[in-house]
């Protein structure tokens, strides 16, 4: 894979946000990079892929679409499917687990699947020390952030070094493939144990007047990015548009970083990555992790070549995402007053907030690294939906 | 890349048509194959890619779409763009050539571009011994088959061993990438100097009632395949549906085979591959190539994972393709009377042929191997639009 070289970075304490880099070639073979581009050879990609867990949060996707997504994930990556699909009247999780199993048998590779609302999973997470994740029904809360957190906890149990996320509702296996290659390329280039790679899709095809229109901008991310950039600019005194991936559902990170991050619930998870990076490693508040402050936290942002081609989740979904994003920015102790009042103005103007009300707080979880992994490892097999497909998915019992 | 193993083949003389194989994994890493699947390691793919020329026939596509297609072609493949785009009022070829040049500079790779209607190209092809290609204006005829023939002639000048085709109107770079990997995988598996790989796309998204519908079947290929299968079945006495790629615009072949094939003009080029294989190597007519008859001509058919997502060219285009396909089958000396009368019945029923008329003949060109390549090599630089980008695209002067 060949990426445009990123020349500019914006610093925020130990956090180094790289300007958006475009993909030049999906496969750069043995080609060399130069001053304008970074070519990452296949062997280097493979070395990362062997350490990379790909988590697929899944909700009610068809077998056909899931099969396509699986086919796009490079063989050496380990697949973890976290499902929040309906189990009644049809047990869609069972169909999903069978799809994964059948694929893995054909492809000769391992995988892990689990259902987010499995009581056994809730018991395991509670036993491991994260009761915050459990709702009034005694189950792990619904929500994308929660699925991602479960995926990260499972990734930690595999003994691998990196975790990346790929949505299940993607109609283009080649795009999934590109995401994974971008993760490997970015993590290889990042050159820090605490790295994150976030994807900005090239375009999003939409049906408009009976034909396809390739939209360049997401309806939610434009707003999220603007306020995150504003947050940064209030400190530097210089306007910036460096953040282009505030809502990046597709992202990957080293587990060394992931274990230290706090994840937000629901759709706040993605923008909160930035907020938590600024809070923990921005140099504004005291960091609990001097080892990270002494290193650096590179955030690479990569614009993919493939269109992001998925089901339209509707306007409510977009509004919900946007509001949750702004809520987490608003409540961050690193957000200066000017940003906070701009958010209130925006939300009020949109009718998403009544006058003189305060944006609600989103749920923020403790870092996954705080879990007692030995307890999680012991309790997990009790979860009825937990499947380890093939051998060698989980590492030996953690110390 | 991992492909489903193909168990069944249909023989027609030396031609061995393999049953459709599906792609299981886009990247099988170092994974091994087994009885159910063929895993082709990256090194084996790379070895083919180094010998593979990818020809892009192009007509009036936007810069953005072309850039995407180029990004999907593996680095080690050599790009040849054959344009039939408008040159007035805007010189679209100039924009295309610049797009290729800019991409190649960023990616550090060579390419060749030429315009199909360049008088210098016509002169070179005529000098090299193919006056049939020239129309009344003294230029190479418009038409996809003609663009493919020019591409194959240029491929032969590069000294590489394989040529593959990728349409320029593809919105999914990941699909282009998959096509090229399938070519390399298929040519590696084919295990014969005279091999062809043809692609059947997974699905074709269409806008229907304001939303997307993933159609599994092409409007033209269903008919083309049915009549080609009928042609085969009339000899074997057994009905068959082995041919699934009669209209495969996306295909690759060894130049050892390509040099011996006759190509048809326009959209007849793709179905005529099968017809010419049956005529030359089917064992029904005498073959001019005993060396091929003593070997075998495997035709691999691969169903890709990515949807084939391109501009809708309209109903006329589809009808035209279908009619041209049936015309070449009808006029083939290997088509038995039952097939010929079925074609006439079908075309008459569709209103594409008046009662008691005969389907028109399509234009069939002599094999590219009959060209005097030394003359072509000498004359080509005279063509004003001929561009050799980077070093090492063309081989040394052919003997």
From TrEMBL, chains A, B:
<dbReference type="GO" id="GO:0005737">
    <property type="term" value="C:cytoplasm"/>
</dbReference>
<dbReference type="GO" id="GO:0050504">
    <property type="term" value="F:mannosyl-3-phosphoglycerate synthase activity"/>
</dbReference>
<protein>
    <submittedName>
        <fullName>Mannosyl-3-phosphoglycerate synthase</fullName>
    </submittedName>
</protein>
<dbReference type="GO" id="GO:0051479">
    <property type="term" value="P:mannosylglycerate biosynthetic process"/>
</dbReference>
<dbReference type="Pfam" id="PF09488">
    <property type="entry name" value="Osmo_MPGsynth"/>
</dbReference>
<dbReference type="InterPro" id="IPR029044">
    <property type="entry name" value="Nucleotide-diphossugar_trans"/>
</dbReference>
<dbReference type="InterPro" id="IPR012812">
    <property type="entry name" value="Osmo_MPG_synth"/>
</dbReference>
């Amino acid at each position: 894979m060949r990426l445009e070289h990123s020349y500019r970075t914006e610093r925020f304490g130990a956090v180094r946000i790289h300007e958006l880099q475009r993909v030049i070639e999906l496969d750069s073979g043995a080609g060399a990079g130069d001053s304008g581009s970074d070519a990452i050879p296949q062997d280097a990609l493979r070395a990362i892929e062997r350490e990379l867990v790909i988590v697929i949060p899944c909700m009610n996707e068809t077998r056909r679409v899931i099969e396509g997504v699986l086919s796009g994930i490079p063989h050496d990556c380990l697949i973890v499917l976290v499902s929040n699909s309906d189990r009644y009247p049809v047990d869609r999780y069972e169909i999903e687990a069978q799809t994964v199993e059948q694929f893995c048998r054909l492809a000769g590779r391992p995988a892990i699947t689990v259902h987010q609302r499995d009581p056994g999973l809730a018991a395991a997470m509670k036993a491991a020390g994260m009761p915050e994740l459990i709702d009034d029904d005694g189950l792990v809360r619904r929500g994308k952030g929660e699925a991602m957190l479960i995926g990260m906890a499972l990734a930690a149990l595999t003994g691998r070094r990196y975790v990346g996320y790929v949505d299940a509702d993607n109609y283009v296996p080649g795009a999934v493939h590109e995401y994974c290659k971008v993760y490997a390329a970015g993590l290889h280039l990042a050159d820090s144990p605490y790295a994150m790679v976030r994807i900005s899709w090239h375009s999003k095809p939409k049906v408009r007047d009976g034909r396809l229109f390739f939209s360049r901008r997401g309806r939610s991310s434009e707003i999220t990015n603007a306020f995150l950039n504003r947050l940064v600019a209030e400190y530097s005194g210089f306007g910036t548009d460096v953040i282009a991936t505030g809502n990046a559902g597709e992202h990957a990170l080293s587990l060394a970083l992931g274990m230290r991050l706090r994840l937000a619930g629901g759709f706040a998870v993605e923008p909160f990555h930035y907020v938590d990076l600024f809070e923990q490693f921005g140099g504004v508040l005291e960091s609990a992790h001097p080892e990270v402050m002494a290193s650096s936290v590179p955030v690479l942002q990569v614009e993919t070549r493939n269109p992001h081609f998925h089901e339209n989740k509707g306007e409510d979904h977009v509004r919900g995402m946007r509001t949750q994003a702004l809520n987490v920015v608003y409540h961050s102790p690193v957000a200066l007053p000017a940003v906070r009042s701009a958010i209130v103005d925006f939300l009020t103007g949109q009718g998403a907030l009544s006058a003189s009300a305060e944006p609600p707080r989103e749920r923020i979880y403790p870092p996954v690294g705080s879990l007692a992994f030995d307890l999680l490892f012991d309790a997990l097999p009790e979860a009825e939906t937990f499947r380890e497909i093939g051998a060698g998915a989980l590492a030996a019992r953690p110390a």
